[in-house]
Amino acid sequence: MKRNGLPKGVTSFRDRHGKIRIRGRRKGVTYYFKSRPGTEEFTLEYLAWHEGREHRLEIGASRTKPGSVSALVVKFYRSAEWANLSDATKATYKGIIERFRVEHGHKPVARLERRHVRDIVAKKAKTPAAANNMLRMIRVLMRFAIEEEWRRDDPTLGIKSIRTRSGGFHTWTEDEIARFEKRWPVGTRERLAFSLLLHTAQRRGDVIHMGRQHVRDGKIRVVQHKTGATLSIPIHPDLKAVLDAHKSDHMTFLTTAKGEPFTAAGFGNWFREACDAAGLPKGCAAHGLRKAACRRLAEAGCSANVIASISGHATLKEVSRYTKAADQELLAEAAMRAIAGPEREQKLANRGNGLAKTGRKSL
């Protein structure tokens, strides 16, 4: 059996007649694909199979109908806007867009109305994040349709995202950081990965590409895959100690057990196992260390702009959450000191019986 670039869970084999067949296994059940890999129809069939839905292959279905959602998606994938996106962003967008395409690809773009979009979002209300992501991608496609003169208006206009209480990835606490460090001492691959994430405040997709060639004059140079931003980050003393203890001839600091570079997904799974071994909650993930780094900077009194110079955030909206939380904590502590200190006790005593003295002379 061979993968040959096929999606996860799908393999190719040669049957007894010498014909190459494509099959997938999901929850112990084997499925034989009818369409050819690399075609639009295979993508739709694979998504339907992966999500446990029935997919009916229609005659001529592989032919994209002019003016349809599917045709718009094809055109979007060939656009300059798509070409300028990072590989990571493309993968995220495509996963959402293809789900929309599976259900609505045959429908005319011009006939998509606001009520249709509301219904699509409402069906995913139980998973607010998925619903909001779908709305965002439909909005991207509709704005592209307007630019291409496929329609004059945006049917997503005025449709609000579903409110969610989730704050995204969990930000590691100092206790969780200490527990990981205790389990994985300096000299282990796990500690190396942890230190790169925490002391550079970068995403896992950037950390896995870091190597000795990026270190110069006490700084590590990063070109972010998601934003394209170029950063020069001073190396924290704790990170320097970890890097000095790491001896390797590989181009990247982090490699698999076989000495090969990590993929972003592979690294995420491996780091999850390291967190489990340290007895950390399921919410502790690689991205949470990026958030922890921003939190530490905010607690140290750094402004949103200063934090962004390290993290590389494209906007200050996300970064301001850390500074706001840090400011709130400092102000709250100052407020409690004001009402719990000696002066407050003196004032309360004066107000109660009029006998206490402040030591000030009356005017």
From TrEMBL:
InterPro entries for the chain: CB (IPR044068), DNA_brk_join_enz (IPR011010), Integrase-like_cat_sf (IPR013762), Integrase_catalytic (IPR002104), Integrase_recombinase_N (IPR010998), Tyrosine_recombinase_XerCD (IPR050090)
One GO BP annotation of this record: DNA integration
Domain of life where this protein originates: Bacteria
Annotated region (Disordered), positions in chain: 343-363
UniProt-listed Pfam families: Phage_integrase (PF00589)
UniProt domain Tyr recombinase: residue ranges: 167-336
Domain Core-binding (CB): 72-146
Keywords assigned: DNA integration, DNA recombination, DNA-binding
GO terms for MF: DNA binding
Family from the record: Belongs to the 'phage' integrase family.
Protein's UniProt name: Integrase
Organism whose genome encodes this protein: Methyloceanibacter methanicus
